[in-house]
Amino acid sequence: MLDDSAYILIKKGDPDQLHKRKFLSKDAYTIGRRGTQFQPDIAFSSLYVSRKHALLQKMGELYAITDLQSKHGTQVNGVDVYDTPQLLRHGDHISLAKGAVELIFFAEGSELDATRELSLPMMQAASESPGLLINLERREIRLDGKRLHLTGKDMDLLMLLYQRANQAVSYEEIMVLIWPERLAGSDKTIPDVGKAEINALVYRLRKRLGRYGENVTTIPRYGYMWEMEEGG
Question: What global pTM score does this model have?
Answer without folding.
Answer: 0.56
